[in-house]
Amino acid sequence: MAFKKRRIFDLRHVQAQQMATTASHRRSHPTHNYSHNPIQPQHRFRQIGEWFTENMRNYCQTTSLHGFSYITRQDISRNERWFWLVVVILAIITSIVLVVVSWYWSQETPTVTVIESSHFPTWNIPFPAVTICNFNKISKTKALSFLDQMQVPVGINRSELHNLFNLTLLPVDTMISNDSLQIYDRILSLNNLTLNRLTQQLSPDCIEMISNCIWKGINTRCDSLFQRIDTMEGQCCTFNYFGGKLRTRFQSDHIALRDAAIPRVSRFCLTP
User: Fold this and answer.
1) Mean of the pLDDT values across residues 109-127?
2) 206 CB burial (10 A radius; 0-12, 13-18, 19+)
3) Quick one: how far is CA 200 from the chain centroid?
4) Pairing assessment for the beta strands 234-239 and 247-249 based on DSSP bridges
5) Rounded to whole angstroms, what are the CA distances from 131 to 212, 213, 215, 228?
6) Distance from C-alpha of 251 to C-alpha of 269, rounded to nearest angstrom
7) Pick from 216, 217, 155: which is nearest to 182 by CA?
8) Helix intervals (H) in the chain
9) Under DSSP, is residue 215 helix (H, G, I), strand (E, B) or coil?
10) I want to staple 206 with a disulfide (CB 3.0 to 4.6 A). Which of 60, 133, 219, 226 is the partner?
């Protein structure tokens, strides 16, 4: 069935048709007839049917829902109007069925969303640990101050202290001569230090890396929130860290000497 081309919906044309229909209806049914003649039941039903038909026609011509306007249009064939009437009725039935099914499902398995609290504190939300490591493994200010306080064994130049400080920056597998290891061991023993404690003394403090800390809306000292831990990057500052506390130390309190001509520094071991 071929459909003809139709013009765009004209609201003025529809309003003119409605006014003409209303005027003809008033002429065919004068008001004085109703006042003198009693209304019969069949005539009342006919009036209700005419009222419903007129309002339904007005609704179909003015609604924005797709398909309704084609039911009452006069510029299309009768078969087209019946086709669109069937389509609209099927769409209404489908919508009703979907609403009923959705209501039935909601009754069978209701879903209730409740806000536990609108004033839940943010500090009770699980937050990951934050670790900050300084690019400089040794603080220059602390190194110069500590250099003046350290004692040097007899016969050893103070320049060896610089080499000892550099030892804290070297990788674990760095090759060091046997004589240098003996000198470093004497310096550490004289000052009652280990290489691990020396690293802690020379590394930057947390309060030097972080200028301002706010906790629960209150300015708080950063050193009370951050703690120092040993990492692969050296001494770092961490917040909200609750893991197993690990500390690095040498296998002995002193630098171990090997029998080889060019020994290595003993490896670090992680112990709980």
Assistant:
1) 79
2) buried
3) 38
4) unpaired
5) 16, 14, 16, 9
6) 7
7) 155
8) 11-28, 31-36, 41-62, 69-72, 78-108, 140-149, 159-167, 178-190, 195-202, 206-209, 222-225
9) strand
10) 226
Give CA–CA dist 268/264, Å, rounded.
12
CA dist 86 and 107 (Å) reads 32
Nearest to 220 by CA among 212, 229, 231, 208: 212
The span from the CA of 215 to the CA of 222, in Å, is 10
Q: Which residue has the higher pLDDT, 35 or 54?
A: 54
Q: How far is CA 237 from the centre of its chain?
A: 26
Q: Write down the residue that tokens 């690990």 correspond to.
A: 246
pLDDT (0 to 100) of residue 195: 77
- Are 108 and 173 spatial neighbours (Cβ–Cβ below 8 Å)? no
137 and 203 Cβ atoms separated by less than 8 Å: yes
- 219 with 213: CB under 8 angstroms? yes
Type and span of the H or E element at 269: strand 269-271
Amino acid identity of residue 183, one-letter, is I
In the predicted model, what is the mean pLDDT of the chain?
73
* Cα dihedral 80/86/91/96 (nearest 10): 160
pTM confidence score: 0.40
3-state secondary structure at position 228:
strand
A 10 A CB-CB count for 181 gives 20
* Tens digits of residue pLDDT in 146-192: 777 877 777 777 777 777 777 666 555 566 777 777 777 888 888 88
**Rg of the chain over all Cα atoms, to the nearest angstrom:** 47
Which residue, among 19, 52, 23, 47, has the nearest Cα to 34 in the 3D structure? 47
Question: If you search the block for the tokens 């002193």, which residue do you land on?
Answer: 254
pLDDT of residue 29: 53
